[in-house]
Amino acid sequence: MAGAWRAGGPLHGQPGPLRDDPRQRARRGPAPPRRRRGGPRAHPALRARGRLRPRRSAAGREGGRNHRPSSPLEPSARSLRRAAVPAKALGLRRGLRAPGKRSGGRGSVYATRLRLLLAGAALCALSAEVGCASVPEGFEERAFRYGGSERRYLLHTPPGYRPDGPERFPLVLALHGGGGTAEGLAAAGGASLRRAADRHRMLLVCPQGIDRRWNDGREEIFRRLLGPDAPRHDDAGFLVALSRELVRTHAVDPARVYATGISNGGFMSLRLAVEHSDVFAAVAPVTATLSVALAGTRPLRPVSVLFVNGTEDPLVPYEGGHVRLFRRGRSRGRVLSTDASLAFFRRRAGLEGPPTEEALPDRDPTDGARATRLLWSGGEEGCEVALLRVEGGGHTWPGGDQYLPERLVGRVCRDFDASEEILSFFARHRLQAP
Questions:
Q1: I need a labelling partner for 378 at 20 to 30 A (CA). Which of 213, 222, 234, 420 fits?
Q2: What tens digit of pLDDT does each residue of 162-189 get?
């Protein structure tokens, strides 16, 4: 009997005593009382589900594609579903084991980590990518070698485009958010950008940042989060070199090169405007303001800028300050307020006085947001500085998807299409001859 086989032994498939062997029961003595699943020591999100350890699949037990080691920093897929956040939005899979609340205040520590992880998911999904790996329709994948590395980007060309024809086309760089991908941006926010690019006959390029982020100039990220030894990739140099390569090979007009992006991508577009105003005729950051680290740099020439910011952005404060997850945790960089960022570019363009102000029609009264356009025009070299101020708007792309719950990233304004507004703004601007 002692050598009989049973499933569920110390290791599956290993020999062990049968469960109904009376001699083994006598040696063990009475079984201890079983603790109820979801008992008082469990985390509330898990206790409500009544299950602490979801069963893993056979593939997970064998280390297959569904397997991921458990960690006290990771909530379970069930608790994420209770929080109305798709597990795949965080890169999680079924079969995770979540910790329960333990003595010594560990439950509150876990709850804090859970909130911070969910907030981190907001940043990682800002380009609305959720595991998109294939090249979206209308784009083709290309590679460009820079700094000893092969950098990827996606390219979309408008109808009627001919690289060997006489017509020169504008170029728009669209930069994903932190944790995002070129494919994700092209599939989600880039879909509306692609349609707008077709209407305005512009080339659209979605580059991929190394490690899914851009070195946008916020030094606090390296000092406090990534560590002083983390590589500082020359993303500004890469994007400038890529633009010049496309000018050389793809019939791009060098006087009409633009950049836009959301969150980390928006911060990166502002770095391009400050440090490479001789290359980019205009930029349009979404949910981003000028970082304090760049505020002391004077652009070589005036540059047109359109900001698209929500007044209730829970990640990048409209009134300036530290970028934090849920306004908690370590700083991800200090930023100027939206008004101070506007003033920075207005001063360089010689724009003084009040703006023209226009309230946009409230096309969707149920979205909880209203938009106003502010425009300063008539600056040096024809520059304009503008703001689409979204009252009640969050860390979102107006006219885009509610990619995460409102309580995490705020509201999406549906009164206008940010993609169309941005490309219409770009179409009015070009670099003047020196």
A1: 420
A2: 988 899 999 999 999 988 999 989 887 6
Domain membership of residue 353 (yes or no) is: yes
Judged against a pLDDT cut of 70, whether residue 12 lies above it is answered with: no
Torsion sign across C-alpha atoms 17, 21, 23, 27: positive
In the predicted structure, residue 306 carries a pLDDT above the cut 50: yes
Distance of CA 216 to the CA centre of its chain: 14
What whole-number distance in Å separates Cα of residue 134 and Cα of residue 367? Answer: 32
> What's 399's domain CATH number?
3.40.50.1820
- Coil/strand/helix, residue 381: helix
In a domain, 289, yes or no: yes
The half-sphere exposure of 341 on its side-chain side, counting CA atoms within 13 A, is 35
CA distance 222 to 291: 14
Task: Tell how strand 356-359 and strand 370-376 pair up.
Answer: antiparallel
Q: Which residue has tokens 């010049």?
A: 244
Say how many domains are in the chain.
1
Q: How far is CA 272 from CA 178, 234, 297, in A?
A: 17, 12, 12
- Per-residue pLDDT at 143: 95
Tokens describing residue 394: 């969050």
> How many angstroms separate the CA atoms of 140 and 138, rounded?
7
What is the C-alpha to C-alpha distance for residues 88 and 155, in angstroms, rounded to an integer? 27
pLDDT digits (tens, 9 = 90+) for 238-265: 999 999 999 999 999 999 999 999 999 9
